[in-house]
Amino acid sequence: MATSNSTAFNMEFTEIAEEAFERAGREMRSGYDLKTARRSMNLLTIEWQNRGINMWTIDEGTINLVKGKTTPYDLSADTIDLLEHHIRTGSVNAATQTDLSISRISVSTYASIPNKLTTGRPIQVFVERLATPRVNLWPVPDKSYSFVYWRL
After folding, report:
1. Which of 26, 58, 75, 86 is deepest in the core (most CB within 10 A)?
2. Do 120 and 56 meet the contact criterion of CB atoms below 8 Å apart?
3. No. of H helices and E strands in the chain?
4. How far apart are alpha carbons 17 and 72 in whole angstroms?
């Protein structure tokens, strides 16, 4: 199934609940109405998930890493999370290409790294789930690599 790749439409939950009540010919009158609407929405999404109706897509992305770049690399703003990530070496030649798995670490683990300027082949990634998500790699790339990932 094709997707539009448009992510500009973003309704708040309260707007979705109000629209549903209006379509049903009712008016939301209390906080309890909103609470039951949220519960119903949660149950509905669980049912869709159990049926295999996924409301997201998984796609692959690549970032060309720059030797010595210590600042985070931005991901696309519509990225929810990363599922898998690898460092690809020798990507110019199919005979020498190798994907090396790297570990995801938490903010506390990343914060406890004493020297974040150490260079080498990245072996760990910290994903900052911000409005525009970004990734921090450690050690800092000692040469050009490709960061390959699969995202929601």
Report:
1. 75
2. no
3. 3, 10
4. 37
